[in-house]
C-alpha cells in the first residue's frame, strides 16, 4: 500500500502541474486521490508482477487456466479474501483441467484436488476466478475443486480430504480467514447458485476437523 500511495501522489503532482492554479490543483488532487487510489489498480492489465509457473501452494502442479475464465487482480490488496468455496468437478481430474483451459467454459477454480491427493493450481490466488457464479463471492474467495461426482461418496478419498484440508489451512493462514463454516462454504451455499456441490456425501465434520488440525500444525 505504501508504494501505491507514493505512486498516486506522484500522479497528483504531475496532473496539478498540467492543470495549473491552486484551486484547480486542489480539485484535481481530490479527484485523483478518490479515483486513482481506488480505481487505478483495478484497471485491466494492472497487476502485481508474477513469476510464470509460480504457485501459491507448495508442491502444486501449475497448469494455467484460460484467461477467459478468471480476471487479473491484485488480491488481497484490491479485494480482501475471507472465504473458501468447496466444489466437486462432476468428472475426472483431466477433464476438469481441460474445461478450465477452454475459453468457452466461462468458469474455473483456483485449485483442483485429485482423488490421489495431488493438487493442481490453475489460477493464482491474486486473481479472481469465476467459480462461484456470484461476482462478490468470486472476488472474496478462493475456489477448491475436488475430483469426482457428488453422488459417488467413494470418490472422496482419505488422501483427497487430507490434501484439501492442508491446502485450505494454508489459505486461511495466508489471509487470516477463520476456520469455520461461515468462511469455508460449499458452492451450494453461495447465494443465487443452482449448483448442489459438494453434495450430501461431502463430510463437512471430517473436513473441518482436518482443516483445523492442519491450521494448528502450521501455527
Ligand atoms: Zn461448484
From TrEMBL:
It catalyses: Hydrolyzes the link between N-acetylmuramoyl residues and L-amino acid residues in certain cell-wall glycopeptides. Transmembrane segments: none annotated. One of its GO terms (biological process) is cell wall organization. One of its GO terms (molecular function) is N-acetylmuramoyl-L-alanine amidase activity. It is an enzyme of class 3 (hydrolase). InterPro entries: Amidase/PGRP_sf, Amidase_domain, NAMLAA_amidase_2. This is N-acetylmuramoyl-L-alanine amidase. It comes from Streptomyces antibioticus.
